């Protein structure tokens, strides 16, 4: 067991400093019942090492140093009495809150209609969760799943639409309108530049002909909703199939249902595939980490 000790060398002016340093170590090294169980041992060590028991306990000179020692002994004795019960122990020791919450047993949780990995999951405004795309052993998937927490169940496959293209590792973002933009990913023929637009109100995907394509096909990109309602899609890998990463971004405008041109969009300082993305309160977006070719971007 590793013990972090904040040790201060004892000063020589008197017993109070000695006890203070020893107490710092003792409180760091022990916790809870261990601390209470060792109070008596610690008290005996202090008394036997700092008092001349051969001369008798009551022969301690009543100097300032001696008075401080008597106060220290009284303090330790009081702490010993405080360790007489579990409730006292809890009052003396620093409390550690117990972990709350648990996982629902597997027997009580539903299964998706289709096994998948590398999918997206988006919380809708009605509380349901849209699970889109991904892949199985046969390749990329165009199917989706729709989880309803009210019934703890997934909608049957026959009641769900499919995306216009099978895609794994896409990026998904909930729009202010409640619709979901799903962009890019990897399909049967490589990286995709197309996007999907899911409408929960009608439980449908917009037709491919009604949607713009990104300037660059990308898989492993990330996306975030901006304060102005637009969607930033950043990074990912290029369609060359050699694993090279992208530093370009896309900007989707739901009011016009279009993506900004490449020339009007900035580029990141580093090439990043599979990075993290986080909108922050200022309206800026933090993009961190990611894979740059065969190297990791810090």
Task: Produce the secondary structure layout.
Layout: H1 15-29, H2 32-37, H3 39-50, H4 64-82, H5 86-92, E1 120-123, E2 129-132, E3 135-136, E4 139-140, E5 144-148, E6 153-154, E7 171-174, E8 180-183, E9 186-187, E10 190-191, E11 195-199, E12 204-205, E13 222-225, E14 231-234, E15 249-253, E16 258-259, E17 276-279, E18 285-288, E19 291-292, E20 295-296
Antiparallel strand pairs: 1-2, 2-5, 3-4, 5-6, 7-8, 8-11, 9-10, 11-12, 13-14, 14-15, 15-16, 17-18, 19-20
Helix pairs in contact: 3-4
CATH superfamily label of the largest domain: Kelch-type beta propeller
How many helices in DSSP terms? 5
State the low-pLDDT regions, or none: 1-35, 49-60, 81-96
Strand content: 15-25%
Tally of distinct domains: 2
Average pLDDT taken over every residue: 78
Oligomer: single chain
The CATH architecture name of the largest domain reads: 6 Propeller
Terminal CA distance reads 32 Å
CATH fold-level label of the largest domain:
Neuraminidase
Shape: globular
Order of helix and strand elements from N to C terminus: HHHHHEEEEEEEEEEEEEEEEEEEE
Strand ordering within the main sheet = 1-2-5-6
Instruction: Describe the sheet with the most strands.
Output: 4 strands, antiparallel
CATH level 1 name of the largest domain: Mainly Beta
Helix proportion:
10-25%
According to DSSP, the number of beta strands is 20
Structural class: alpha+beta
Radius of gyration: 32 Å
């Amino acid at each position: 067991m590793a013990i972090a000790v904040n040790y201060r060398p004892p000063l020589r002016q008197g017993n109070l400093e000695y006890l203070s340093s020893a107490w710092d170590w003792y409180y760091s090294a022990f916790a809870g019942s261990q601390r209470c169980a060792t109070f008596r041992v610690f008290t005996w060590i202090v008394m036997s090492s700092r008092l001349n028991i051969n001369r008798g306990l009551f022969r301690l000179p009543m100097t300032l140093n001696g008075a401080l020692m008597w106060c220290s002994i009284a303090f330790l004795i009081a702490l010993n009495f405080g360790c007489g019960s579990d409730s006292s122990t809890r009052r003396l020791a620093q409390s550690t809150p117990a972990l709350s919450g648990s996982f629902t047993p597997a027997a009580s949780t539903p299964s998706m209609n289709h096994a998948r990995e590398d999918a997206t999951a988006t919380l809708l405004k009605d509380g349901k969760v849209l699970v889109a795309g991904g892949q199985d052993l046969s390749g990329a998937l165009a199917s989706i799943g729709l989880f309803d927490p009210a019934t703890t169940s997934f909608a049957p496959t026959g009641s769900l639409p499919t995306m216009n293209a099978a895609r794994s590792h896409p990026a998904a973002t909930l729009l202010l309108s409640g619709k979901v933009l799903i962009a890019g990913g990897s399909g049967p023929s490589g990286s995709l530049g197309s996007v999907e637009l899911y409408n929960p109100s009608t439980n449908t995907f917009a037709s491919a002909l009604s949607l713009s394509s990104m300037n660059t096909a990308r898989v492993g990109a990330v996306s975030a909703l901006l304060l102005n309602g637009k969607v930033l899609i950043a990074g990912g890998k290029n369609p060359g199939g050699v694993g090279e990463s992208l530093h370009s971004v896309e900007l989707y405008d739901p009011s016009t249902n279009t993506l900004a041109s490449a020339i009007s969009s900035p580029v990141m300082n580093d090439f990043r595939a599979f990075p993290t993305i986080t909108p922050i309160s200022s309206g800026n977006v933090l993009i961190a980490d990611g894979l740059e070719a065969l190297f990791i971007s810090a």
